[in-house]
Amino acid sequence: MYLHIGGDAAVRDEDILAVFDMDNATASHITRAALRRAEREKKVINTAEDLPRSFVLCSDGTVWLSGLNPATLLRRAENETYE
């Protein structure tokens, strides 16, 4: 199955390691450093039209920035049909 994370992007659910709230997660200097590293390695993909509200970390190291709330992504992951 795929999880629609906003914009025109969908990620295979088996590739998702974690979904983070952007505000809470970026309070940590370790998370900010990890995001900077992913950015340097060109592994950050921004699907948010405005400011991202969450980010999805995948098993290949790709970080998807999403304009959707993490709770919305969780609901979508729990449902069989994504709206």
Brief sketch in words of this structure:
With 83 residues, the chain is of the alpha+beta class. It has helices at residues 22-25, 29-40, 70-78; strands at residues 2-6, 9-12, 16-21, 44-46, 54-58, 63-66. The protein is 30% helix and 33% strand.
Describe the overall structure.
This protein starts with a strand and ends in a 5-residue tail after the last helix. The model has no long low-confidence stretch (mean pLDDT 92). The strands form two sheets. It has a four-stranded mixed β-sheet. A two-stranded antiparallel sheet has the order 1-2. The chain is 30% helix and 33% strand. With 83 residues, the protein is α+β, with helices and mostly antiparallel strands. It has one domain (2-78). A hairpin with a 4-residue loop joins β5 (54-58) and β6. It contains three helices and six strands; from the N terminus they run βββααβββα.
Order of strands in the sheet with most strands: 3-5-6-4
* Mean pLDDT level: 92
H/E element sequence = EEEHHEEEH
Compute the number of helices.
Answer: 3
Give the DSSP E fraction (strand runs of 2 or more residues).
25-35%
Which helices and strands, and how do they pair?
Blueprint: E1 2-6, E2 9-12, E3 16-21, H1 22-25, H2 29-40, E4 44-46, E5 54-58, E6 63-66, H3 70-78
Parallel strand pairs: 4-6
Antiparallel strand pairs: 1-2, 3-5, 5-6
